[in-house]
Amino acid sequence: MNVPLLDLKAQYATIRADVERALAELFAEQHFILGPAVERFENEMKAYTRAGHAIGVASGSDALLLALMALEVGPHDAVVTTPFTFFATAGSIVRTGARLVFADIDPATFNIAPDAAAAALAGASRNARRTVLMPVHLYGRVAEMAELSAVAARHGAPIVEDAAQAVGARCAGRMAGTFGAVGALSFFPSKNLGAAGDAGMVLSSDDELANRLRMLRTHGSVRRYFHERVGINSRLDALQAALLSVKLSHLERWNEGRRQRAAAYSRRFRERGLDPGPIRVPDPADGEHVFHQYVIRAERRDALRDRLTRAGVETQVYYPVPLHRQPCFQSLGFRDGEFPHAEQASRECLALPIYPELRDDPLDHVVETIAGFYRGS
Ligand SMILES: *Cc1c(COP(=O)(O)O)cnc(C)c1O
Q1: How many domains would you assign to the chain?
Q2: Residue 85 in contact with ligand 1 by CB distance below 6 A
Q3: Sequence-ordered list of residues with C-beta below 8 angstroms from that of 371, at least 6 positions apart, any chain
Q4: I need a surface site. Which of 51, 82, 127, 293 has the fewest CB within 10 A?
Q5: Predicted confidence (pLDDT) per residue in 337-351, tens digit
Q6: Centroid of ligand 1 to alpha carbon of 224 (angstroms)
Q7: Are residues 17 and 48 in the same domain?
Q8: For residue range 293-324, what is the model confidence (pLDDT) as tens digits?
Q9: The domain boundary residue, chosen from 230, 248, 266
Q10: Full domain range(s) for residue 281
Q11: Is the pTM of the predicted complex or chain greater than 0.85?
Q12: Distance CA 164, CA 139 (A)
């Protein structure tokens, strides 16, 4: 039995007529850059997240970069983030010229540990003009925002949330991306709310930052051909916005489907005595995790992964090389063993197939293959 990591065709089958209608309307209008479709989606996202402003941009990576640009982060500043995340998080920091500072993760959540973040901010504030904290809500689980906000406030550090994997995730009722000064969302096709190509968004409830973000995404201009600042070209395509509007109305149900599938995995792993045991299932974070990925920790991870591949089960390792070990950051002087929890996670983590339409049969096949591997059969 073949079980893909993600099955976007199953999702598309359920929304096809609405998507085709929305795209046909857009082509009839021929308004592709900003305009009504983008404004509609921005307003819908604003209402959904209850952020003061929702600004569509070209990708999640650009959302992070624009957030730092709007905060005027530059060479005299330091930005603290996690070494266990997708490359774009750290890439955006280095592109501003700011110093990239890592703080290790909490092994229980895979997210930046508040005490490590506190130590990193304290260290960085000694020789930086200003510090910024950039937590990531990895796999769809909101980071410990209450503690992190308190830690950041102590250093006067604004927070930029990398909420690329966590659209729709909440913590105590508040949406991922609305805790900090700016939140960045990604609509990369495989994300929980995925476009048909690259797309992203910045959220902010600060009017001045929002104005700056709108300006920076169109070459720093408010009035056409008059440039207040040097920005970039990073707008959300109207085509993507029209598609995303259709999909947004399903997002809560899809996220609930992911949570149910995650609970089904975890229940079966516990029933078979695999957790606690050779694997560890992810914590559901009081039902607020949106399971962009369902990631277990596994003994003999690579051998298990090979077995799953042979059984037709697609898996992935997010992320095999923590960012402080990346060749492009070698000149920054990070050391092997400096962030032991991130390094251990990179050796043990394994993402299993998850999507709202994942049925019981393939899910059972994944569980049985894993159980067979640890039984030695
Ligand atoms: C996907 C992702 C991004 C970047 O988003 P793109 O839209 O692909 O540019 C940034 N950070 C994290 C943690 C991501 O998963």
Answers
A1: 2
A2: yes
A3: 272, 274
A4: 127
A5: 999 999 999 999 999
A6: 30
A7: yes
A8: 999 999 999 999 999 999 999 999 999 999 99
A9: 248
A10: 251-375
A11: yes
A12: 9
